Amino acid sequence: MFRPFCLAATVAVSALLFTAAPATAAPDPRPVPAATSTAAPVTYGRTPPPVPVPVPAPAAAPSARVVNVAHRGASAYAPENTIAAFRLAQTQHADMFELDVQRTRDHELVLMHDTTLARTTNVEQVFPERAPWQVADFELSEIRRLDAGSWFAARFQREPVPTLAEALRAMRGSGLGLLLEIKASELYPGIEYTLAEELRRHPYWLRTNRWERRLVVQSFNWQSMRTFHGILPWVPIGLLGTPAIDRMPRLAQFADQINPHFEDLSPDYVAHIHALRMDVFAWSVQDPAIMRQVIAHGVDGVITDRPDVLRGVLAEGPPRGS
How far is Cα 95 from Cα 175, in angstroms, rounded to an integer? Predict the structure, then answer.
């Protein structure tokens, strides 16, 4: 595919190529080009089943043709959007880790998928009077009191809600690229500028050389992505959702990826995206059979809670008949 930059890595086989100019699972709402503002809590995803056992990494090196993206980290095995999940993604040989960014009342960037803190922290016990526990209603000092791990498994007790800065520092030099999603940007006016300011404090993640880029920023809110592109135009942009084919030439003016839910994909749709020199990352794929199917469609990346499973599928080689 058309990949003018690569994912810099610290290991021997270090260059994974991506797309040109500017990828999550568990049911997210279907996107709209311009999100409508709402103050109601939004809960995405689901509470995972009992923690599965990680699959040992295969001896054979997986193909670099398809990028292995750990969705909220290795979130099948560790609490989502935590440093523990990101480090496990590295251990499981993912190529990139994905995370979700929101903004606190005092304008700090924290990692949280839902717009409410209730599903993945103990906020209801710590602040019982603060329903509906929206991220935007809490200051960072309050969020630091929360346990973001016990809901998943006892061994993750006291795992904190990370700030974006903490995640960027923890994963610097890990060899993994970052797929960063701005969540519910309609609730946080100007979050694109807040994010750009934070990223500038971490130049490791901001490389202007197209062969050293480590970061993609994505959102369901395509207007938000157009705004961010205007601030940091060299950072690749991903659009979550399934835009109509006749809209794609306009979107390709600022976007580098179209990242649909795997159920919305077809080989023809992928081909249309590639014809416009954009890449396709499919989310969120957990089943090996479906991984093989979307890979056969020609996607450039697969976003999964189970990067170890995807690694095993990629090690099998190209699908038969491809």
Answer: 8
